[in-house]
């Protein structure tokens, strides 16, 4: 039901007490997922919200999932560009570690997801080094930008619109970096008193 975006079937399964934590079959290119993780990956906001509200285990992984693939929900939605779900997660829970927040920022920066970067900068605190890493990812990454079969040569030929995305994210990061530097200077100056 989640894969096919069939909300009626999903509601029926929920009301009939289906196992909301069952792992799907996965595939050759992706790990097995629980319903809540699948809803996050696919951006099924209403289904995701119902699963979260039901209290399903959102940290459950298949036993064969490699550690490097065990991403938090904020990392998943940041990579998949669902700023609305990210906003909800940051509102609903304070459980996210600084490492998870930083990795979510880096994922969004690598893929030039402006709305996700803006939401993370608005809702989370990042130190100067984390912001500088984000700038590095924005400046050195060449996301496929929705074109999965793009050649390496064509990736270098970013359009004007793509360049504007990159510049907007760098602007957001630079503004936050300047703010954090200003706070450090103000703290240093007050300690001299």
Mean pLDDT: 81
What is the rounded Rg?
Answer: 19 Å
**Percent strand:** under 5%
The coarse silhouette is elongated
Number of helices: 10
Largest sheet: none
The proportion of residues forming helix, as a percent range, comes to 55-70%
Please tally the β strands and state the result: 0
Low-confidence stretches: none
Distance between the termini: 63 Å
N-to-C series of helices and strands: HHHHHHHHHH
Structural class: mainly alpha
Quickly list its features.
10 helices; mainly alpha; 193 residues; elongated
Architecture blueprint of SSEs:
Elements: H1 7-15, H2 35-42, H3 45-53, H4 73-80, H5 83-92, H6 98-110, H7 114-123, H8 128-140, H9 152-155, H10 160-191
Describe the structure.
By secondary structure, this protein is mostly helical. The chain is 60% helix and 0% strand. The chain contains ten helices and no strands. It has helices at 7-15, 35-42, 45-53, 73-80, 83-92, 98-110, 114-123, 128-140, 152-155, 160-191. The longest helix has 32 residues, at 160-191. The protein is elongated and about 55 Å long. The termini are far apart. The mean pLDDT is 81.
């Amino acid at each position: 039901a989640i894969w096919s975006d069939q909300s009626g079937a999903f509601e029926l399964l929920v009301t009939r007490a289906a196992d909301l934590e069952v792992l799907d079959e996965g595939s050759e290119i992706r790990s097995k997922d629980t319903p809540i993780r699948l809803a996050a990956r696919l951006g099924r906001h209403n289904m995701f919200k119902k699963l979260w509200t039901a209290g399903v285990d959102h940290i459950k992984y298949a036993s064969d999932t490699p550690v490097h693939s065990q991403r938090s929900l904020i990392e998943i939605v940041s990579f998949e560009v669902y700023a609305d779900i990210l906003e909800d997660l940051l509102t609903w829970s304070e459980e996210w570690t600084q490492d998870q927040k930083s990795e979510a920022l880096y994922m969004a920066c690598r893929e030039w997801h402006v709305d996700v970067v803006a939401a993370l900068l608005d809702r989370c605190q990042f130190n100067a080094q984390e912001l500088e890493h984000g700038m590095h990812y924005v400046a050195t990454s060449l996301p496929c930008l929705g074109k999965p079969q793009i050649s390496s040569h064509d990736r270098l030929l970013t359009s004007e619109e793509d360049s504007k995305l990159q510049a907007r994210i760098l602007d957001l990061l630079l503004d936050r970096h300047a703010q954090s530097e200003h706070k450090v200077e103000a703290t240093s100056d007050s300690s001299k008193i």
